[in-house]
Specification:
Elements: H1 6-36, H2 42-56, H3 62-70, H4 79-98, H5 105-121, H6 128-161, H7 167-206, H8 218-234, H9 237-246, H10 252-272, H11 278-292, H12 300-328, H13 332-353, H14 373-381, H15 386-396, H16 400-403, H17 410-415
Helix pairs in contact: 1-2, 1-4, 1-7, 1-8, 1-9, 1-11, 2-7, 2-8, 3-7, 4-5, 4-12, 4-13, 5-12, 6-10, 6-11, 7-8, 7-10, 10-11
Family: Belongs to the inorganic phosphate transporter (PiT) (TC 2.A.20) family.
InterPro entries: Phos_transporter
GO molecular function: phosphate transmembrane transporter activity
């Protein structure tokens, strides 16, 4: 190791902070359906997920190499650029967690990195082919593929099982759901923990601590795995509520189909080095499972809000990352200003979240989706559901049955 400067240490600590937010932001990906169907108690579910996230972090480094070697030109990147990128990613994670929206931590990180890199070295420093083939295309294809697979698996499950709904059947599917949830957690570790490994490795290369082209050191793999595991154990209860009950109502066999499909897609993408959004995959699988059951429904208003968040993630994080890079470019004082802003903004978001606490005690009991900024904004421009319109009409327009006594009102009518 040639050197380890103060700014490099700050970047590493900030990267691990992002990894922690990634953990609690994405706990829902593995455990939301397991908790919502009652297959596991909430605290047990997040503890199991945390342990398997840590194990998964050691299984591969392909995604880490995509981040550290492929997405941007590592030779023109300074540690301050990576710090600015992490600021954009962390703030987006916290804002979407506050409003209970399952957005992509992966795309937040890459958006921040792209924005900060462009602000520092121009568009030429971003490898557009890697961005398209290993980030954007998987982002579009993965939820569709996982959703179709989950829908077919759900229909197949109900087809071969007939109408068997005995206790033994439910227990069997719950056991399968626990196993598949563990597989998703393992897959999450192989994909999402590696993104932080990649960003730290990129920072070490930029700071001259390791040579270009190096794989993540063992201490980077261990620290990233521990950070995401700790965040997972804390539990992102707001997003678990949205993913588990806000999208659709799932039975154990649907949860099993959704999680198995998601785990297969994530593990395959990790093997190929695709920096896949586990949030997109699991959300697609949950919606597919909802559509796969006869009579099942998907709450498209929630799905629409999630889609809006997905579309905004990359550009929003990129804008914050670019802004932060412009300030850090002013020198050590600018870096200090950005650091203070990050801490103050994070503390403010946390304080706001305490106004309505969501934790393991009420994540399932209260299924109403918390009204956040995005929820309120979209509700203001979205037509009300059909049921609401009907209720309003019956309150203002008399029904035929109620209109029958109209002849009693004849005297007033005759005076007109």
């Amino acid at each position: 190791m040639e050197s380890f400067s103060l700014i490099l240490a700050i970047v590493v600590v900030t990267a691990l902070a992002f990894d922690f937010t990634n953990g609690f932001h994405d706990t829902a990906n593995a455990m939301a359906t397991t908790i919502s169907t009652g297959a596991l108690k909430p605290k047990i579910a997040v503890a199991m997920s945390a342990a398997l996230n840590l194990v998964g972090a050691f299984l591969s480094v392909e995604v880490a190499n995509t981040i550290s070697k492929g997405l941007v030109d590592e030779s023109g990147i300074r540690p301050e650029v990576i710090f600015a990128a992490l600021v954009g990613a962390i703030l987006w994670n916290l804002v979407t967690w506050l409003v209970g929206l399952p957005s992509s931590s992966s795309h937040a990180l890459m958006g921040g990195l792209i924005g900060a890199t462009v602000a520092s070295a121009g568009f030429g420093a971003v490898h557009g082919d890697v961005l398209v083939t290993k980030v954007l295309l998987p982002a579009v294809a993965a939820p569709v593929v996982a959703g179709l697979a989950s829908m077919l698996a759900t229909r197949f499950s109900y087809g071969i099982g007939g109408k068997a709904e005995g206790e033994a059947t439910r227990k069997g599917y719950r056991a399968g759901q626990i196993a598949s949830a563990g597989l998703v957690s393992l897959a999450h570790g192989t994909n999402d923990a590696q993104k932080t490994m990649g960003i730290i490795t990129l920072a070490l290369i930029a700071g001259g601590a390791i040579s270009p082209g190096s794989n993540p050191p063992v201490w980077v793999i261990l620290s990233a795995g521990l950070a995401i595991a700790l965040g997972t154990y804390i539990g992102g209860w707001r997003i678990i509520r949205t993913m588990g009950t806000g999208l659709t109502d799932l039975e154990p066999r649907q949860g099993f189909a959704a999680q198995t499909s998601a785990a297969t897609a994530i593990l395959a993408s990790s093997h190929l080095g695709f920096s896949l959004s586990t949030t997109h995959v699991v959300s697609g699988s949950v919606m597919g499972a909802g559509l796969g059951r006869k009579g099942g429904v998907v709450r498209w208003s929630t799905a629409t809000r999630m889609a809006v968040a997905w579309v905004l993630t990359l550009p929003a994080a990129a804008l914050v990352g670019a802004g932060a890079e412009s300030v850090t470019d002013l020198g050590d004082g600018g870096t200090a200003v950005v650091a203070v802003f990050l801490i103050a903004a994070s503390a403010t978001i946390w304080k706001i979240s305490r106004r309505e606490v969501v934790d393991h005690t009420n994540v399932v009991a209260d299924t109403a989706e918390p009204a956040g900024v995005v929820t309120t904004a979209i509700a203001a421009v979205t037509p009300p559901p059909a049921g609401t319109v009907t209720e309003n009409l019956t309150a203002t327009i008399a029904s035929p049955a109620a209109a029958e006594p109209a002849p009693q009102a004849a005297p007033p009518a005759a005076t007109v």
